[in-house]
């Protein structure tokens, strides 16, 4: 390696005597900053994240902004306006880039999606037509999810109109998933809450486009500002999407536009598909047992007016205790439907607008009054008039509570859950199980406890109760079978789909429901009426079987109530 020798001004660096006494210095660095200067300079350089953050803070826009800036409004909505999705159907290719972007940005699980892409098909064999449709939350003017929520876990921004879900407030009752006609809220079983699209409101607030808008390669999705009054007027024309839920229900704000004229038979690709819905077993048990409890109290109160007070004392004690037990068991079962049952106390927050809150309050009052009545039945010295008044009070509150249960499902505006369908089924269930439970209490008291008053009670009202059970069961069977008449209707209506489910995928449950119902509600009562001299043990066994058959039959009927429901929905895809 070359060295430079320098000593005492001698350029050769050779000292006297011919010896080289200089120290070697490794090569002279080239012109420019030294190594230390370069390291210090590198420390002053910002990373890509830091550069983006600084640009953002200074009001700069991302490099991609030129691609989507025209797809978002330049100004916030004015009074009487709100943000809305605008979908250009002519541009949508069904690539699902919007679905992927939404999924990635929001960190959704593998089977979770807040945006879907469906398919419309129609036309003729010679001139077929197909149209992809991308859908998400429509941020309705009157969102059903917000009205239904018992804990006020939804809010509609007064300035932007965006409907947001408050995850911390949600306790996972899933009522909003039934109330929303567009199947927008999605339940996350792992987190125990519901989640949904919020139009990437944080990005919009910073002037950036939502993930779906930015990701679409065809610019098929945009954010626009709509006039509230115009949305209301447009909903009257029912011109939303073919076979979609009627817009007047919640007044959705999403705009679908196209320059093409669709054929008259344009329908979703899955329009004719019939699939059983989630049965919600905790709700099935809760509904049936609460109606059993209410029916038992009502039947017991009716007997109070027909029989001698002395004959009713022992029966009243056992019957009130058993009816109360079924009611408390029902309320316990309802908590298993909650994703976060530890927050069940929040359920009364939505009392002003949510039928679920009203049902919870009504059954809470019912349970409290039933406890007071059951206690009064066992405490001696309380005037009989007071006890009878408590009995009728409990029965009346129970009837109101069942009405609240009816309205929970009527609110969803599904034809299979109409007021006539739901009220008839719920109140007939109360009557059937109330009569069966009352008859069981009388037989147990008279046979097992050998109570003479109960034995006399059995002779006085036994046949009457059995006749009432046969008539009530028969009425309900006829009403349920009337649903099958929709199979003869040519148009594929929601009720026809329900009927198809009952005789198709749910045919086994349908057969079992009627077999058990006829066995417990008709065959066994007729047998008991015709065998007046049957041995006591045999009678008890038959009555227990009668009660179990009726209960199992009503549980299966309620299973069908949830599994066979069908309603108009947003376009879906082809299913294998």
Name the shape in a single word.
elongated
Residue ranges: pLDDT <50 for 5 or more in a row? 1-23
| N-end to C-end Cα span | 77 Å
Query: What structural category arises from helix and sheet content?
Result: mainly alpha
Helix amount, in percent?
A: 40-55%
Strand fraction band?
5-15%
- What's the story with the biggest beta sheet? 3 strands, mixed
Instruction: Compute the average pLDDT.
Output: 88
Which sequence of SSEs, written as H and E, runs from N to C?
Answer: HHHEHEEHEEHEEHHEHEEHHHHHHHHH
The count of DSSP E runs of length 2 or more, i.e. the number of strands, is: 10
Widest beta sheet: strand line-up: 8-1-9
Radius of gyration (Å): 36 Å
Total count of helical runs of at least 4 residues: 18
Account of the protein in words:
With 576 residues, the protein is mainly alpha-helical. Helix content is 50%, strand content 8%. It has helices at 35-43, 48-57, 65-68, 97-105, 144-148, 175-179, 201-205, 211-215, 228-236, 281-306, 309-334, 355-378, 384-410, 419-448, 452-481, 494-503, 507-530, 536-563; strands at residues 81-88, 116-123, 128-135, 154-156, 163-165, 186-188, 193-195, 221-227, 255-257, 267-268. It has a 3-stranded mixed sheet. Helix 11 (309-334) runs antiparallel to helix 12 (355-378), helix 12 (355-378) runs antiparallel to helix 13 (384-410) and helix 15 (452-481) packs antiparallel against helix 17 (507-530).
